[in-house]
Write a structure and sequence with these properties.
mainly alpha, 9 helices, globular, binds zinc ion
Length: 185
């Protein structure tokens, strides 16, 4: 139960971070869109599945669910645009957010689970989110280098597999003792 509680708290922290970071989008404002109108069930399910798929390589259901929640929370900026804040909801899809969120989550929860494990979940969930957004046709590139430039960068289709596999590798490495204990059993 305590582990589940930790996963929920970490997911809330990650979501708050994602929403907060999205204010960076005010540096390159764009008219707010009615997100509820265009978010589809496939989009939510896709992000959830891709997040779960990287998380399950910890061989721990709670961690897999946490990765699922993180993967969904990357789109926290949608909340701002829904509330009428003129930001691009994709602004959290940047290298700056990836690095900041990974380091911050790892640091904040270092005594609860370990820096390595929490950072790996954050990094992997982010990568899985990017992977699905490439598949999801509605997405026209990422502002990868914001807040330094808001230019959109398209990633090639093959990077879907590369990003997802990289996420899996991070999780598998951080939780390698779980895999080793499975092998020994
Ligand atoms: Zn997204």
């Amino acid at each position: 139960m305590e582990r589940l509680q930790l996963a929920v708290i970490a997911s809330i922290v990650y979501a708050v971070l994602s929403v907060t970071y999205s204010f960076v989008g005010l540096l390159s404002p764009q008219p707010p869109v009615n997100v509820v109108g265009y978010i589809t069930a496939e989009e939510i399910l896709g992000h959830a599945l891709f997040g779960f798929a990287v998380g399950i390589f910890s061989f721990d259901l709670v961690i897999a669910l946490q990765a699922t929640a993180f993967a969904l929370a990357v789109d926290g900026g949608h909340l701002l645009t829904q509330l009428g804040v003129p930001v691009n909801p994709g602004v959290s899809h940047s290298l700056t957010f990836m690095i900041l969120s990974t380091l911050l989550l790892g640091y904040v929860f270092r005594n609860k689970i370990s820096f390595r494990k929490m950072a790996a979940i954050a990094m992997a969930a982010f990568l899985s989110h990017m992977a699905f957004d490439i598949i999801d046709g509605g997405f026209n590139g990422f502002q990868l280098f914001n807040p330094f430039t808001f230019a959109s960068i398209m990633l090639p289709v093959w990077s879907v597999a590369a990003l997802e596999l990289l996420g899996i590798a991070f999780v598998a490495f951080a939780f390698k003792e779980n895999i080793l204990s499975l092998v020994r059993r």
